[in-house]
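Final report, closing paragraph on structural work. Over the funding period we assembled a curated collection of sequence-structure pairs, and we close with a single example.
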Amino acid sequence: MQIKQLIKLMPSLLLGAALIGNASAKDVAAPLLLHPSTASEAVAIAAYKEMPAENFSKMVNTAFENAGFSLRTSERMKDGTVRYTFAYPVAMEGQVQNIEVVLRTDENIDKKGRCATCFLRTTVLTDFADLQQAPWMLQYAVNRQILPAIDQAYASIQQDGQAFMDGSLGFDYKNQWQGEKNLYENSFVGIEQTRLKSTVIDAYRAAGFIFQGDVRKDLRVSYLVFSFPVDPDQAEGVVYKISVASQLDASDRCYPCEITEVYDPYQKLPAAGLSGMSKRLTLESRFAASRALALEKLKNSTAQFLRAGTMFTMPPKPAPLGSPRPHIKPIAVT
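Its predicted structure, as stored:
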């Protein structure tokens, strides 16, 4: 497959590819899935009537070519379906790979060669299954380069075909590109994995957390485990973790490494001793202040390594520590 060939030509991504290859498909987190409309079945988004079939085909081809795609094949089926295969040049690691996109239309043509009803559908990536297994940075590159081009093509079609569009259906297309998104809260590139972990540990220690250890979950993810003191005389504390999901380049630098906060605000807290009652009353305010301080320190010390186009994301404020766990009502079966 073309995508597999590209990975072989990208030595700096081989370690990341190996990590992905050792996980089952259903366990693999994929940046491509941040834009699920790319992977979905092709659905109709607009219908055209009384438009010359030749003009309809030309409108589709021109829109995609002007957006940077090149037409590879155009195949008309017996049922009136036309399958257009376009290619888009994605630049990555000094290599350029043509990623194929398929657009299917349903062209019901009358005796005059006009659209009785011609349906325009969404695009689908032909190599989606392989791309989903590819290194994350390649998937991010595909998202960043192809999705805006697809959006541009559909915007052109909407404008150019407006006179023949079936107004009762409208143009039901939503832009796929919404800006850079990370799989996890924050994504870093170019920093050594050990240095990133040390930076996280230092930020939380300086804010009053106690580092407990680095626990590996699987080949890709590990947890930096901390404890936040509940009472001054107790060893037990609030369990708090930072997840580090890593793919590395040939120099063992993050390409990328992504971190996210992992902890349960509803966790059972250790019983408070008599000497610790006053501290227990201030636990939530102390924890919230220390957490905010650690995140701010982490933001300042990692700014230069953020993946291009992204910003440091502060995770939302969780429920207060010690809150009762919400009761999930069972779904009523009728």
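The longest helix spans residues 136-160. Confidence is low (pLDDT under 50) at residues 11-28. We thank the funder for supporting this effort.
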